[in-house]
Design a protein that fits this description.
The chain has 377 residues and is α/β, with parallel strands linked by helices. The protein has 16 helices and 13 strands. 35% of the residues lie in helices and 17% in strands. The strands form two sheets. Strands 3-2-1-4-5-6-7-8 form an eight-stranded mixed β-sheet, sandwiched between helices. The chain has a five-stranded parallel β-sheet with strand order 9-13-12-10-11. Strand 2, helix 5 and strand 3 form a beta-alpha-beta unit. The protein is globular.
Length: 377
């Protein structure tokens, strides 16, 4: 879809800007006026992980004038194979602060705003309001629906991306011109049916491929060049090295972007909407105390056998997640002692906990943060 430029040209380029962006300015479709639009643009990237890392570097390199970064997390060693903004010395530091330093080192001409917070219903509209276009580089469904709904309410275009193992997807959503994310996925998948990167894994280089698609659409939207892929789902399959596109049609009955929406505000709780209920947790410290006191409980690891073989919490018993979803695990659980579940990060164990509590095992909790938190603390 051909669209007019999203951003007006900013001030005339300085000599330093002209030199820095010379290889981009010589492109006939961009020229100095296009570079001035890029320099006048404000782009918000929500998530500074696998997708956010390369996206942020390319936004800065392209000369985007103001870049916003939203991420509440700190750098972990498991991030380093794909989150190219960070290095060994950054482990434990806030991602937004490391990202700001790396971006300003790459291009001191850009302004970087950081938001070291979790994006929520209470802050998303305020944060997104000042930006021209949004990049969704998050990895969970609750946040994706939240960003989509906020973008629809603010009439902001945003570029979504997703990666899993060897496959990635990207799309640009702009509800005034085409479908929104809810038109593609009207309802979230059932809890536990789709694994995140921590559970399924991801080929690190795939993140750069999808992030490049996202930034490409951002630059096209800012400058008005080319055809924006509104109404298209772009797919890349790394093992086959194949790109493809699927049409996405605007849903005339979409709850938020149709002519007569039934949802006119943000939802109160997107975790509940996605079936991620608040699960009773036990902390690492309290679990250690239970071990020390020889309390009568059973600790169950719901990961896969290969994960269990490579690392485990002493005393844990393996019952993979699949056995909870087909109910065979219920026959293995004691009813006369407390049950504590754990997985890698706390996602799978929360889903399994909901299943057993629904079956009447109310004396049960799961380990907040999973084995990652255990190993870290």
């Amino acid at each position: 879809m051909k669209t007019p430029p999203l951003v007006n040209p900013g001030p005339a380029l300085s000599g330093e800007q002209t030199r820095r962006y010379s290889r981009q300015i010589v492109i006939p479709q961009i020229q100095a006026s296009g570079q001035e639009r890029i320099g006048n643009a404000k782009v918000l990237c929500i998530g500074a992980g696998g997708l956010g890392s390369p996206a942020l570097m390319y936004l800065a390199a392209a000369g985007v004038g103001t870049i916003g970064i939203v991420d509440f997390d700190t750098v972990d060693e498991t991030n380093l194979h794909r989150q190219i903004l960070y290095g060994q010395s950054d482990i434990g530091k806030k991602k937004v602060e490391v990202a700001r330093t790396k971006i300003q080192e790459s291009n001191p001409l850009v302004i970087v705003n950081t938001y070291p917070v979790r994006i929520t219903t209470t802050n998303v509209l305020e944060i997104m309001t000042d930006y021209d276009i949004i990049i969704d580089a998050t990895d969970n469904f609750a946040t994706r629906y939240l960003i989509n709904d906020a973008a629809v309410l603010l009439n902001k275009p945003y570029v979504w991306g997703s990666v899993n193992r060897f496959d990635g997807q990207a799309a640009i959503f702009w509800s005034s011109l085409g479908p929104c994310y809810r038109c593609l996925h009207p309802t979230p998948p059932a809890p536990g049916t789709v694994q995140n990167c921590a559970e399924a894994g991801v080929l690190g280089v795939l993140c750069a491929s999808i992030a490049s698609m996202q930034v490409n659409e951002v630059i096209k939207a800012i400058t008005g060049i080319g055809e924006l892929q509104i109404g298209k789902l772009m797919i890349y399959e790394a093992l086959e090295a194949e790109y493809s596109k699927i049409d996405i049609h605007k849903n005339p009955h979409c709850v938020i972007c149709s002519e007569n929406p039934t949802q006119v505000n943000l939802l109160e709780n997107y975790e509940s909407f996605c079936g991620v209920a608040s699960a009773p947790e036990i902390s690492v410290e309290d679990l250690k105390k239970k071990f020390a006191a020889n309390d009568d409980f059973i600790l169950i690891d719901v990961r896969e056998p290969d994960e269990f073989a490579s690392s485990r919490i002493p005393g844990s018993v393996l019952i993979p997640k699949a056995h909870f979803f087909d109910a065979t695990a219920l026959d293995l659980l004691p009813r006369d002692k407390e049950i504590i579940l754990h997985c890698r990060s706390g996602v799978r164990s929360a889903h399994c906990l909901a299943i057993i509590q629904g079956a009447g095992f109310m004396n049960s909790r799961h380990l907040g943060g999973g084995i990652l938190a255990w190993e870290k603390q």
